[in-house]
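Q: I'm writing a short methods note and want an example of a predicted protein-small molecule complex. Could you take the sequence and the SMILES for S-adenosylmethionine and return the bound structure as tokens? Please keep the output block clean; save any remarks for afterwards.
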Amino acid sequence: MVAAWARSLSESSYDLVVQQLIPGYASLARLSVALLAASPLAASPGAAVLVAGCGTGAELLEARGQRPDWQLTAIDPAAEMLVVARRRLEEAGPDGPPGARPAIRWRQSTVEDLDAQAAFDGALSVLVLQSLADDGSKLAFLTALARSLKPGGQLVLVDLMRSERSPLQAQVEQAWLSFQAASGLKAAAEAFDALSHGLHPIGLARLTALVNAAGFSDPALIFKALAVEGFLLQRRA
Ligand SMILES: C[S@@+](CC[C@H](N)C(=O)[O-])C[C@H]1O[C@@H](n2cnc3c(N)ncnc32)[C@H](O)[C@@H]1O
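A: Understood, no commentary inside the block.
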């Protein structure tokens, strides 16, 4: 259930390696939060926002910076990720006085096990869906996310996607490895193989079918760097 590649990294190396792997990763959390903050429901002061699969806390840190008023719920099934995220957020500054900066609610849970019916005005899920098999697990995850949102609530979903086949694909893949090597990733090809083991990327048509079945509108593309794509989705009323 938990992403093998995320678990295989020691907590401190995750943040470095993910930046070496994904072009533009450093801006992803910033963009994701900015998008959600512009959504009709999450724009309201004190909006309730779910960070699903918070990992080491990149989206939480960014949300704290851009929208200190948000009531954040951070969930992740991996205890070791929650420990790192909590420490990182504490180091960034204590929760402020009551009312100014609500304390983050931390839950060790998957989205599927979170009992939250229409509790959130918005949600972020960055690099999580890719680790679930397309055997009903992806649909269960997306359905649980939709259920946790109020009607009209929006989700920013970022994931590794299956690349379209093209005669130039081999060159694109080679360039991605070169990007990783130039970013300092040791033995980029081997590291990439090891880390991508256990991931289940899907194409856009399949993603659209799954999110529609889960209760979301069609995905709007908001980010693309090689095979990593981000989408804005809205829970249907
Ligand atoms: C690759 S990390 C991404 C972390 C963070 N969002 C980021 O972009 O840096 C994926 C995280 O999703 C968590 N995860 C895996 N399955 C999940 C599920 N069903 N519900 C919630 N989180 C899940 C993993 O434990 C892991 O911490």
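A: Remarks, as requested: The chain has one domain: 4-165+199-234. The chain has a mean pLDDT of 91.
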